[in-house]
Design a protein that fits this description.
Number of helices of chain A: 12
CATH architecture of the domain at 441-526 in chain B: 2-Layer Sandwich
Largest sheet of chain A: 5 strands, parallel
Helix content of chain B: 55-70%
Strand content of chain B: under 5%
Low-confidence stretches of chain A: none
Mean pLDDT of chain B: 94
Number of helices of chain B: 25
Shape of chain B: globular
CATH topology of the largest domain in chain A: FAD/NAD(P)-binding domain
Strand content of chain A: 25-35%
Shape of chain A: globular
Strand order of the largest sheet of chain B: 1-2
Strand order of the largest sheet of chain A: 3-2-1-7-19
Mean pLDDT of chain A: 97
Largest sheet of chain B: 2 strands, antiparallel
Bound molecules: flavin-adenine dinucleotide, iron/sulfur cluster
Distance between the termini of chain B: 59 Å
Number of strands of chain B: 6
CATH class of the domain at 441-526 in chain B: Alpha Beta
Radius of gyration of chain A: 24 Å
Oligomer: heterodimer
CATH architecture of the largest domain in chain A: 3-Layer(bba) Sandwich
Number of strands of chain A: 25
CATH superfamily of the largest domain in chain A: FAD/NAD(P)-binding domain
Number of domains of chain A: 3
Largest interface: A-B, 60 and 59 residues
Distance between the termini of chain A: 41 Å
Chain lengths: 449, 527
């Protein structure tokens, strides 16, 4: 029986294992070092905030693995010996494989800042990081201030976490507006305001200079590079992005770039070795996507695709339309298709932006000025239906069509105020159109492209 | 703000302490005249032994607290009855239960501060409780900060994470229900507090069920205020909470009392069989058929409600229209029980237990009702060798009192707020069938957006592992879902939406989620 070994029990490794099990009778082993069982990394914040216990972040009950004959090995892989098709674990164990899937995820990036390895300085990626945070910042008596470095999605989550325990937070963001490399200006601005509303000391255009130590080797203050200001603190969170967790593969002969280099079939340069999830790097990016896609959904989709290949139905990783979501404190964000920030905007891309007069609600719709084609939407504080946008993107609908049928796409809970009329009115006046939004139609929602 | 909260807590606890002390304090004196009158009116003059015993040891004496008086009454009654049983003088046996007899006598003999200061005592218990609780809750408008999901600290706090406070609440609630169902004589002092209210509604002094009904409304109202604040960003929750509150206060509490005043049968128009398990009991059918037009109307309404209205509404809106918009049990669970919703077990094992139990209770309820009807029409007391009244009593005690009451509410702080609705309610089981197999209701999963975080499953009061469906891109179609909408509210990625739509495509098993390669999706999902 063929033995499939997967390194990493994150979403990508587990997805591939589950699908291989559905498709075949192969022997499956997952080797991973962080935790005994798969858990949802995206939910770590809720454990610290007291919304959930750690066990709630585990999507499957513990009996699931045995029942599905997925063997779990807890251990750290130090070496992949591909000529002999075996793995070497830190504790000396060896595991032989027929096919190997590398799904080792990411680790927090550090940029050689002075003091980055002091006590009280940490990233926010793993279960261990969570435990460390519990030690570094249990409450606002022992952690009188925390400084977070890096204004991305994990940074703002960490800020929210600390604020849930009333710990004062200073948030150093390199950009001049929050996440403005990704978000268009209007949205980024709204999030800036929302961050301040949550009493987070947001410092835009501020880089970390160095972290100062006290006599015990603990972080005691952070120096801002631009101003030289010293901010006393008890904890420093480094959240300036993540990078593939592949150091153990350095001398393995597997081709590496920033991540494990793979082709469209998720194959590495070495036969029978594949890489998926955060740690995989495409030789050439797929469409507008980045070569390394460090998000939950893509890890899962790579797993879904690779399982087919492993079970003899060779298949490219060919993701559909881009989508993503996040939550900035109280504001939910969803995106479908491509909406670029001013910095990354394509030549023909034009944006229509609507923002609610009082509430923190807004949307940005991107379309092509040449042919009026709808390119994508960012929505804040309004939930939208994935299905509708996916279909409109496939059908290459015009932005007018999308506006006309926007009600179909509303996914907010029942009785919520609806803003389609207002949105379309603004669209009409701004672009000189005369669109009347149509009533929601189940029939349209359910037709598939 | 914190200071107001803390003061509120203290005031609330003082009110609660007085309320809790009431069952064991107070002065009772059974006057000779009123005892004689009672004996005549209640027809227990026939039991000379009991009357004799009472004359000797109770009548004319003063007692401090029910614990002093009650045992004398119950022993006297039991001794008298057993003597008559031995002598085969069955006519002289009193069938009133000893505890109810103690309640009856107790209620007539209250004497002293509590009885003479009902208004003041109401204020010192209910009043302080309400004021204190509101002082504790209202500052949250400010303290909770910006609107949005506010679950911070739920698992870090003793009271909501099964700590000692939760256990204390558990014991308190269980004890309260035990008194209510099994030792009502100790509730006598409570009834005095609400006598004025009861008299103004139905014209009668309050019984212990009136206390319960009144308290139910008060607790729901106060905790609804908490819901309004906590979920103020979520209109669905606000509307739904208002609806359950309305049905509880108007339909379950006010209308039945007013009907009594108008000489009509006491009836809660929204309480559907088989939750209303004694609807077809002989005594109820007799009462209804003897009450003229209104009785007949109730009889027809009760049958139509269960056979037509309930399933049709479930077809259009899902079982939520009843369970989390109308029902009283659901109403308490959604208000008082909300802080505990996360404790329902999500394990597959619990789901198995749930299916056996709830369907078992449904079968029990239906079988009992068939027996009852057979007995009623054929005028026999036994069916297939089983005594109908025995079966009815078993159901009333085990299901009606222990399961729905003591366990159903008492277990909130430890096992979550819908123990009864999930494991026991026969009506929920019936609604569940309709919802599962023929209904427009579903919780739609938003394509591929789920990040498996688990908030939805954690906060599902019905113990549904919502995530298990959402992370596969599947809609959630479960017979037990009461449509509370909290899974949708807490989801940080906007994945879930409760909605009513066409039957086609409602159940959508998927393996590969939206967002991936369309050909792959087609190939895998079509299989
Ligand atoms: C706080 C936080 C919030 C996030 N929120 C979102 C979000 O909202 N939406 C979103 O799309 N994405 C989010 N992400 C990103 C998302 O979690 C990742 O993209 C995803 O978890 C990657 O999955 P993976 O399976 O590739 O790797 P991982 O989940 O990182 O799993 C890899 C596993 O392999 C183990 N491992 C690594 N090396 C070895 C070795 N040599 N031997 C043995 N085991 C090894 C690691 O310990 C780890 O357990 C978030 C990430 C974080 C940290
Ligand atoms: S599935 Fe959602 S709506 Fe249904 S009972 Fe659970 S939390 Fe409520
Ligand atoms: S709360 Fe939302 S994102 Fe989290 S597991 Fe449930 S459906 Fe998925």
């Amino acid at each position: 029986m063929e033995h499939i070994v997967i390194i990493g029990n994150g979403i990508s490794g587990v997805t591939v294992a589950r699908h291989v099990r559905k498709l075949s009778d192969k022997k499956i082993t997952i080797v991973s070092t962080e935790t005994d069982y798969f858990f949802s990394r995206t939910a770590l914040m809720y454990v610290y905030m007291g919304h959930m216990k750690f066990e709630h972040t585990q999507p499957y009950e513990n009996w699931f693995w045995k029942k599905n004959r997925i063997d779990l090995v807890k251990g750290y892989v130090t070496q992949v010996d591909h000529p002999h098709k075996k793995l070497l674990l830190q504790d000396g164990r060896e595991i032989a494989y027929d096919k190997l899937v590398v799904a080792t995820g990411s680790k927090p990036s550090k940029f050689g800042w002075p003091g980055q390895d002091l006590l009280g300085v940490q990233g926010m990626y793993s279960k261990q990081d969570l435990d460390q945070l519990e030690a570094n910042a249990p409450n606002n008596l022992s952690c009188k201030r925390a400084v977070i470095v890096g204004g991305g999605l994990i940074g703002i989550e960490l800020a929210e976490m600390l604020r849930s325990r009333d710990i004062p937070v200073t948030f150093l963001v390199r950009e001049n507006s929050f996440w403005d490399g990704v978000l268009p200006g209007g949205e980024s601005q709204m999030i800036n305001e929302h961050i301040l509303e949550h009493h987070i000391d947001l410092r835009l255009g501020a880089n970390l200079g160095e972290i100062l130590a006290d006599e015990n080797g603990r972080a005691r203050a952070v120096v801002v590079q631009e101003t030289g200001e010293e901010i006393p603190c008890d904890m420093v969170g480094l959240t300036a992005g993540v990078s593939p967790n592949i150091d153990f593969l350095r001398d393995s002969g597997i081709e590496l770039g920033r991540g494990v280099k793979v082709n469209r079939y998720l194959e590495t340069n070495i036969e029978d070795i594949y890489a998926i999830g955060d740690c995989a790097e495409q030789h050439t990016a797929i469409g507008n996507r980045r070569p390394i896609e460090a998000v939950w959904y893509t890890g899962r989709m790579m797993g879904e695709a690779l399982a087919q290949t492993l079970c003899g139905k060779k298949r490219e990783y060919r993701p559909g339309h881009w989508f993503n979501s996040a939550k900035f404190l109280d504001i939910e964000y969803q995106t479908y298709g491509w909406v670029f920030s001013e910095r990354g905007m394509k030549e023909n891309e034009r944006h229509f932006h609507w923002r609610h007069a009082k509430e923190k609600i807004c949307i940005t719709v991107a379309f092509d000025t040449a042919n009026n084609q709808f390119l994508g939407i960012n929505t804040f504080g309004i939930r939208m239906r994935h299905r509708c946008f996916d279909r409109w993107l496939t059908e290459k609908r015009s932005v007018d069509h999308v506006m006309e049928h926007l009600r179909d796409a509303n996914f907010d809970p029942e009785f919520y105020a609806q803003y389609e009329a207002e949105i379309v009115a603004k669209f009409n006046s701004e672009l000189g159109r005369d669109i009347t939004p149509r009533k929601k139609s189940w029939k349209r929602i359910f037709t598939t492209a | 703000m914190k200071a107001i909260k803390n003061t509120g807590l203290v005031i609330f606890l003082v009110g609660l302490a007085i309320f809790t002390a009431l069952p064991v304090i107070g002065t009772f004196k059974v006057e000779r005249a009123s005892f004689g009158q009672m004996a005549e009116e209640q027809g227990f003059a026939k039991s000379e032994l009991f009357v004799q015993a009472m004359q000797n040891s109770v009548v004319g004496k003063e007692f401090e607290g029910m614990p002093a008086l009650s045992p004398l009454v119950t022993t006297a009654l039991e001794t008298a009855n057993s003597q008559y049983r031995k002598n085969k003088e069955y006519k002289k046996i009193i069938y009133t239960k000893p505890n109810d007899m103690a309640l009856l006598i107790g209620k007539k003999s209250g004497n002293g501060f509590i009885v003479h200061n009902k208004g003041l005592m109401w204020f010192l218990t209910f009043g302080l409780g309400i004021v204190g609780a509101l002082m504790f809750i209202l500052p949250n408008v400010v303290l909770l900060g910006k609107k949005g999901i506010k679950n911070n600290g739920i698992y870090l706090e003793n009271s909501t994470n099964r700590g000692w406070i939760a256990w204390l609440v558990f014991f308190f609630l269980v004890a309260f229900y035990v008194v209510l169902y099994f030792a009502p004589q100790y509730a006598v002092n409570w009834t005095y507090l609400v006598d004025p209210i009861s008299e103004s509604l139905s014209g009668n002094p309050a019984g212990h069920w009136f206390v319960y009904g009144f308290m139910y409304c008060v607790v729901m109202t106060v905790m609804a205020v908490r819901m309004y604040i906590k979920y103020r960003h979520n209109v669905y929750q606000v509307v739904r909470t208002t609806s359950v509150l309305f049905f509880q206060i108007v339909f379950a509490f006010l209308i039945p009392e007013i009907m009594v005043r108008l000489q009509m049968p006491y009836y809660d128009f929204k309480n559907a069989f088989p939750l209303d398990y004694d609807f077809f009991f002989q005594w109820n059918l007799r009462e209804l058929t003897n009450s003229g037009g209104i009785g007949l109307f109730i009889l027809v309404w009760g049958i139509v409600l269960t056979l037509v209205i309930v399933p049709v509404m479930v077809y259009f809106f899902g079982k939520r229209w009843y369970c989390s918009w109308v029902c009283g049990c659901g109403g308490l669970a959604e208000t008082l029980g909300d802080p505990y919703r996360q404790h329902s077990s999500k394990s597959l094992f619990s789901w198995k237990v749930e299916r056996w139990l709830i369907h078992g209770v449904l079968v029990f309820a239906v079988a009992m009702t068939l027996m009852t009807l057979y007995s009623f029409f054929s005028e026999t007391g036994t069916v297939l060798g089983l005594k109908t009244s025995g079966v009815q009593n078993t159901y009333s005690t085990m299901i009606g009192a222990v399961f729905a009451g003591v366990i159903g509410t008492g277990f909130y702080p430890i096992f979550g707020n819908r123990v009864w609705c999930r494991f026991g309610c026969p009506l929920a089981a019936y609604l569940g069938f309709v919802q599962r197999f023929k209904s427009r209701f579903r919780i739609t999963t938003n394509g591929g957006q789920c990040i498996s975080c688990g908030n939805c499953s954690t906060y599902c009061e019905q113990g549904i592992d919502v995530r298990a469906y959402a992370q596969k891109g599947e809609n959630i179609i479960r017979s037990s879902c009461v449509g509370c909408g909290i899974c949708s509210a807490v989801c940080p990625r906007g994945v879930l939406k409760l909605e009513n739509g066409p039957l086609e495509g409602r159940i959508n098993p998927t393996e590969v989620l939206l967002g991936n390669d369309v050909d792959l999706m087609e190939m895998v999902n079509k299989k």
